[in-house]
User: What shape does this take?
Amino acid sequence: MLDLKQIRENPQDVQERLNHKGAHHDIKPILQLDQQQRELEAKRSQLQARGNEIGKLVGQKIKSGSDPNGAEIQALREEGNSVKAQIAELEPQERELKAIIEELLLALPNLPSQSTPIGKSEEENVEVRRWGDEYLPQNSNILPHEEIGEKLGILNFERAVKVAKSRFVTLIGAGAALERALISFMLDRQIAAGYVEVIPPFLINSESLKATGQLPKFAEESFKCDQDDLWLAPTAEVPVTNLYRDEILEASQLPIYHCAYTPCFRREAGSYGRDTRGLIRLHQFNKVELVKFVHPDTSPAEHESLVRDAEAILQALQLPYRVIELCTGDLSFSAAKCYDLEVWLPSAGKYREISSCSNFEDFQARRGSIRFRETGKKGTQFVHTLNGSGLAIGRTMAAILENYQQPDGIRIPEVLQPYLGREVL
Assistant: This one.
C-alpha cells in the first residue's frame, strides 16, 4: 500500500511514477476524499475540544455556587448535548471516508523505484548479464521436455487430467525422485547460505493475500475454499511474509532470511492458451522461495544478494541463463524493482523465466503492518520485504530434461547425483 502522506505531499511525483507502470491510476479521487476526511476530522476535533470545555465550565460554575438547575447551566448542558450529537453524526462519515480511501489505496500498485528502467512493456526490459554459454547444448535434435519425459515414462499428463483437469502433471518413478531431489538440493543450498527454513501453512486467509498484494486485484488468479475463507497458496511468499504480519520487530532482529518449499496453486487466468503443454505453466507446481525482511537502508544491497542466491542454484546445476531487469511497464503489481532469471530451453530456442526476484520496499509491510523499532529512536518504521524463487521446480526440471538430454537418456547434473544415487535417468 502506498503512503497516503506521500501521495498528499508529492502528488505529481506519485502520479508520474504510477503512469510509468502502464495502467491508468488517477490519484485525484484519493486526494479529494483525503481533503474531505481531514476537514471532517478537524471539525470533529474542534467539537470535541468545545465539548470538553463545556464539561469543565459546568463543573466550575456549579463549584462556584451556580444553581445546577439554573438557566445558565441548562444552556451549557444543551450546547454540550448538541455538540455530542454533531460528533455522533460526523464519526460514521469519517469512518466511511477512511474505508473508501483505504479501498482506493489497496487498488494502487507499488511505485517503481527510482533505479528501475522506464519502459512500456517487456520489450524494453534490460539484459544485465548472461552465464553458462559454455554449457549450451550442441545437439540440434533435442526433444521438448514434455516429449522426452513422456517417452521415459517419468511425466504423465493424461492420467493427471483424469484425476484433476488439464495443466496438471503426474510425476512417476525417476520423475518424482528428480523433483524431490531438486527440492532438497535447493533447500540445502539456501540454508547453507544463511536462510532459515520454514514450512508454512499451504492454506491461507484473505488477510494474508491482501497484505502481499494478491487481493483484491488478483482474486481470479487463486483457488479459494469458499466455506472457510481460505485460499490455496499461490506462492510461499504469501504465508511466509504473513508470519510477521501485525508485528513490531526489533532492529537487532533484522535482516530475517527464510526459505520455504511449498506447492503453489494458480489459475493462470490470464495465460490465454500459452504453454498448454509441459511443465512451464501448470495449475499446481512446486517451488522453493526465498523471503527477506530487511532494514530500508540495506534494501538495495539485499536485493542484489537475493538475486545472487537464486543464480547460485542455476550455476551449481550448470544451466545457462540470463538476468533481466524489468522495466516499469513490466513490473508486477507489488514490486518496486525486479530481476528475472531466465533459463535456456533448447527446444524453444529461447530463455524462459525460472525466477523472479523482487524488492517490494515498504509496500507489503505497510499493507501487513510489519514494523521495526530502533534503539534510541522514537516511533517505528516499516521493514522492506523481498522475495525470489530459488527456484521454480518444474521449470528447473524442464531445463534439465532438455539441456542434459543425451542419446541414451538424461544425464543427471553432478550436484544432484548424491540425492538420486544415479548418473542417468
Q: What stands out?
A: The chain has 13 helices and 18 strands. The mean pLDDT is 95. The CA atoms of residues 260 and 391 lie 11 Å apart. Residues 28-63 form the longest helix (36 residues).
